[in-house]
Amino acid sequence: MGFQSALSEFTLAKIYFDEPMKKHTGFHVGGCARYYAEVDSLFGLNHLTSLAQKHKIKIKVLGNGTNVLFSDLGFDGLVIDLKKLNDVFFKRDEVRAMAGAKLDKLIKFNLDHRLSGLEALSGIPAEIGGAVVMNAGAFGHNISDYITTVETLYDGKIRVYDKNECKFGYRTSRFLRKKEIVVSASFLFPEGDREIISAGIKTYLDLRKSIQPAGCSCGSVFKNPKPYTAGALIDKAGLKGESVGGASISDKHANFIITNSKARAIDVYLLIQKIKRKVKDAFDIELVEEVECVGEF
């Protein structure tokens, strides 16, 4: 039995064929994934990945889709959506969040239980799995600041890493572009005053709204090459407002690329390459993308 036939009979996930990835990403561009699956249990995830490995099918795990650019040619493999694995709960004195839980859901859980620490990450449109892999952060705070352990699935086995084994760095971890799938993370947060936590969340949401543009984007396109910021370098290179096809550099924040309804993935990709060239020519600095390009460009 071929992989497509096996998927047609697979009952542990909701399966789609030739699923448009523009429906699932922040840029709202990209071609179709040959296979697309929504899983709602670790049991189903394990069986699905085993089936794909048996048939030598490429796998891409998708979080909230805000840090990924799928090619217009699509993805000739299996995209696994974890958004239904979204529980957040106490495990002893720690908080455990499944990979598909939105970051804001974890922050709301903390607020309800008077736990502080992640207020600065309010409004980041990420799920826990992707946030852990990229060590998401903002305003000097990172999700790894409060992680105790990370749980992954690979080759049919669950493995638990303590924080020191995760190799967290600036927008990176040991899980970046690895085959193992982050399925949950556990956190230890300090107790706080509910009103102060709530005020902190509002402050950071307002700040984010004031400095970041609206529209279809992946958030920050490039990592900040310390001691500089990518946005300032792109601005100084005179690139604000530059566009390729339906993709343009935001006039409000130069580290954001905004797409319109006519944009293609190749427009975004070519604009990224143009930014890198111009900044390199002007400042001899190599910008490194936060956004992940999937497929052929």
Structural features:
297 residues, alpha+beta, Uridine Diphospho-n-acetylenolpyruvylglucosamine Reductase, domain 2, Uridine Diphospho-n-acetylenolpyruvylglucosamine Reductase, domain 3, Uridine Diphospho-n-acetylenolpyruvylglucosamine Reductase, domain 1, 3 domains, 5-stranded antiparallel sheet, 4-stranded mixed sheet, 7 helices, globular
How would you describe the overall organization of this protein?
With 297 residues, the protein is α+β, with helices and mostly antiparallel strands. Helices cover 27% and strands 25% of the residues. It has three domains: 3-81, Uridine Diphospho-n-acetylenolpyruvylglucosamine Reductase, domain 2; 88-210, Uridine Diphospho-n-acetylenolpyruvylglucosamine Reductase, domain 3 (2-Layer Sandwich); 213-294, Uridine Diphospho-n-acetylenolpyruvylglucosamine Reductase, domain 1 (Alpha-Beta Complex), CATH 3.90.78. The protein has seven helices and 16 strands. It has a five-stranded antiparallel beta sheet with strand order 6-7-12-10-11, with helices on one face. A four-stranded mixed beta sheet has the order 1-2-5-3. A three-stranded antiparallel beta sheet has the order 13-14-15. The longest helix has 19 residues, at 265-283. The radius of gyration is 20 Å and the shape is globular. It starts with a helix and ends with a strand.
